Amino acid sequence: MSASTTQKIDPNRLTLWERHYPGHDMISTRTFGFWLYMLTDAMVYAALFASLGVLSHAVNLAGGPPPSAIINPVYAYGETITLFLSVLAYGYSMVALKSGSRGGVVGGMFVSMLLGVVFLAIAATDMGHLFAQGVVPETSGFLSIFFTILIYHALHIVVGVVWMLVMIAQIARDGFSANVVYRLINLRLFWHFQAVIWVFVFTFVYLQGMVA
Amino acid sequence: MLVHLQGPWNPLLGRLTLQQIPYENPILLGTFIFAAILGVIVLGATTRYGKWGYVWREWLTTVDHKKIGVMYCLVGLVMLFRGFIDALMIRTQQAIAIGPNSPGALGAVHGYLTPFHVGQIYTAHGLIMVVFAATPLLVGIMNIIVPLQIGARDMAYPYLNALGLWLTTAGGALVMLSLFVGNFAHGGWYGFVPYFELPYSPGVGVDYWMWAFQLSVLGTTMGSINLIATIVKMRAPGMTWMRMPIFTWASLSTNLIALTSFPVLMVALGLLGMDRYLGTHFYTAGMGGNLMLYNDLFWIWGHPEVYFLILPAFGMMSEIIPTFSEKTLFGYATMVIASFAIGGVSWGVWLHHFFTMAAAPNVNSFYSITTMLVGIPTGVKVFNWIFTMYRGRVRYELPMLWALLALFLLLVGGMTGMMNAFASNDYMWHNGLFVVAHFHMMVLLIAASVFGAVEYWFPKVFGFKLEQKWGKWFFWFMVLGTGWVFVPMFFLGMAGMTRRLDYIPYTQWAPYLHITLVGMAFYVVAVLFFVAHLYVSLRDREKNRVGADAWGTSRNLEWMTHSPVPAYNFAFIPHVNARDEWAWRKENGIAELHAGDYEDIHMPKNTGIPLFLGLLSMGLAFALVWRIWWLALLCLVLMVALIIIRSFDRDTDTTIPAREVERVERAARDGSSGSVPPAGVLGDAVIATSTVRSGSGGIGGNTTSPRPSWAPRNR
């Protein structure tokens, strides 16, 4: 108890109730929650990467191809470049948001979205080739986790692309209302997060796979 | 990509055929008739009294954290009852099926349940009690109390809150549905691989288990995001971290655990799902699968989950014990540190669930020691509670009785837990009844805290206290049942009895098993007393109306608003000046002050979308269980569409005008005359009207709370 009973309290000098309380900052509350969501998703990825570590033993190849035989560095390079350029474009879109330029935001986002689609196309081509060669998730424990991580990441990109479409529509309808702005900020977090995760995918799935 | 299935499948209904309805089983038939009659009564009464509009407006579409919390608790209570019936069946089966000469009935060689049926029952019992009874009850209470304790008007994300509720409910409903359509998993609630893989468990039971589990994972994760954001971002001005009520601290710690551990379970179950649906080889025997991967992933969630359940229970005890000791909590800072220490250690102990799985001795030793470390912060908590009571004016009212029972069970469960922490001990009784008895002590501790918390906060939510007489009968029969059921189990565990037996080969265990059956009889009587407790409380609610400060000696912010709490929680947001703010105000004689003119209050608007998303998620899960691909796709597309459509909705908020606030506040302050809110609800229309018994120390009432007749005099 911070105040003992011997201490005299003067009610007139105390603030007991908050008059005209403005409420909590909506945008910062929503953004904070999105950080928490990203923490949960980071845990999902952590568990998947841990599974990759477990299932990378020679036993887990079960006679199937090792990672070095199936990884095509050209595709991985192309995916890396497109995803990072896409994040860069989204960054310019956010710069435009600061100056309130609707055209700048939508333009940046459109480029970002297109690059996201290109990323998906490269990933689909890569996986399509592998599937055509009979390298499928059912082949071995290692290939199961290999494809799971890649597809789980690609699904995030799909969600991001759909989200950008929705945001372009909402900007066109509402301009930069509080709801639109917090969603743009959260989408920025989401999109950057996918690039960060891609660094881990590249390191653990591709780089480590090539070396092993 | 899709796996080849044994048995029939057609595009329209998937694996679902008429033979999957177990109408030939008299137990399930009886259950169905019971459920159907109950359903008809509930739905019929709602229609008969024209309450559909009320149910829709006030409950199904609500985003009010108090109502969502109440619904969480109702779901938890229903599932608790189901889990209890499962327990009753396990215990009766084990009391009958002892030795080769034991009788058999209903198609069973021994006892009255076939091994397949027993398997489903104990799997359902475990899953239900952990994720569909304890979790919703705790989440529900946190949902109601945390925003009130921090002086907020709602949760950070009211819409997400409703979504979490409906996803959890969908999961629970799916478990219930498995009773009547198909069957449930029969290999234990945490699943075994490769036993839960398709070749060994080709039926739909594991799929029901998996998808119900996944839905609850989603719901709980969303709830944890919401509660953490609420606590971090929504505290009233002046409420610094070290002024936060201890239950809020416990909630923060517990939800940090949930936030970080539930996604791992999502992966554990998700990979199993890929194995079962797409033919991958994560956990298969052979083809490069790894069986231990499942155990590790599952228990990396599983053990933090235990502390996710127990920390809110500790928080509840930390609220109840100071109130009924009429003292401030002893060792507030150490209590906070201990909560987070338990949360932190919870991440480093999971391997003690499988000491016998051929880990190296140094690995086992590491996890033995981390497990024992849990005892240190827990011990700090126990001593803090004891010192809180020491030289306090302890009043043995119902919440306090439950808290003391919880304290006692914590000692028994904690000490036996230390015994389990030795890997060498575990080699002797792994998977045995000693372990079962140990963790039932711990979960009964949680149950005792929850009952205590319900008794304690019930008047805050509903405006009247629960009566004491039948409640005490309920309490004492729960004590009796707990002793008689679980003490013999410790002996049986020492004697070598393993879990999940449908037939007991050793007749010398019979006396112990019969004693546990007597204990179950005490539990049954306790349930009847519980019903009487609720009935009498509801009948006599007028006599037990209370004001804002229902117990007279409570200490925190939630008691600074009317009982029942109005929709907007606080007409004015309190400014916090001290730890135990309400107790501080009462001590300084400033409890009657309020701020004058009322203001408009901004609140979120009701929406039916979370309910529809919950229904669709249940449809999706059901379609996946039966592999009805068109239905799964349809539900998924509709869910995505609904989420997008909702994001275009600009009309999501509403304002309660100042005049309306004033009307409600006046009614609550002055209205000791006949205006009584409808029974057992949180008020009519948008806003509650409540009655304060004159002189009960509500806001604007007397400055000091009256001393109840049962309270001890000054010594």
Could you tell me the CATH topology label of chain A.
Four Helix Bundle (Hemerythrin (Met), subunit A)
Q: What's the CATH H-level superfamily name of the largest domain in chain B?
A: Cytochrome c oxidase-like, subunit I domain
Count of alpha and pi helical runs of chain A:
6
Strand content of chain B: under 5%
Q: Total domains of chain A, how many? A: 1
Structural class of chain B: mainly alpha
Q: Topology of this structure?
A:
The complex is a heterodimer of chains A (212) and B (715).
Chain A: E1 17-18, H1 26-54, H2 67-70, H3 73-98, H4 102-132, H5 141-174, H6 178-211
Helix pairs in contact in A: 1-5, 1-6, 3-4, 3-6, 4-5, 5-6
Chain B: H1 26-48, H2 52-60, H3 65-96, H4 115-149, H5 158-180, H6 205-233, H7 246-278, H8 291-325, H9 332-345, H10 361-373, H11 375-389, H12 398-421, H13 423-429, H14 433-462, H15 469-495, H16 510-539, E1 573-574, H17 581-587, E2 601-604, H18 609-626, H19 629-647, E3 653-656, H20 658-670
Antiparallel strand pairs in B: 2-3
Helix pairs in contact in B: 3-4, 3-5, 3-16, 4-5, 4-6, 4-14, 5-6, 5-18, 6-7, 6-18, 7-8, 7-9, 8-11, 8-12, 8-14, 9-11, 12-14, 12-15, 14-15, 15-16, 18-19
GO molecular function, one term (chain B): cytochrome-c oxidase activity
Region (Disordered) (chain B): 692-715
GO biological process, one term (chain B): electron transport coupled proton transport
Characterize the structure shown:
The complex is a heterodimer of chains A (212) and B (715). Chain A has a single domain (30-211), classed as Up-down Bundle (Four Helix Bundle (Hemerythrin (Met), subunit A)). Chain A has 6 helices and 1 strand. Chain A has helices spanning 26-54, 67-70, 73-98, 102-132, 141-174, 178-211, and one strand at residues 17-18. The radius of gyration of chain A is 24 Å and the shape is flat. The model of chain A is unreliable at 1-5 (pLDDT under 50). Chain B folds into 2 domains: 18-539, Up-down Bundle (Cytochrome C Oxidase, Chain A); 546-607 and 652-715, no CATH class. Helices cover 61% and strands 1% of the residues of chain B. Chain B has helices at 26-48, 52-60, 65-96, 115-149, 158-180, 205-233, 246-278, 291-325, 332-345, 361-373, 375-389, 398-421, 423-429, 433-462, 469-495, 510-539, 581-587, 609-626, 629-647, 658-670, and strands at 573-574, 601-604, 653-656. In chain B, α8 crosses α14 (433-462) and α15 (469-495) runs antiparallel to α16. The model of chain B is unreliable at 672-715 (pLDDT under 50). The interface between A and B is large, with 59 and 69 residues. β1 of chain A pairs antiparallel with β1 of chain B, so a sheet runs across the interface.
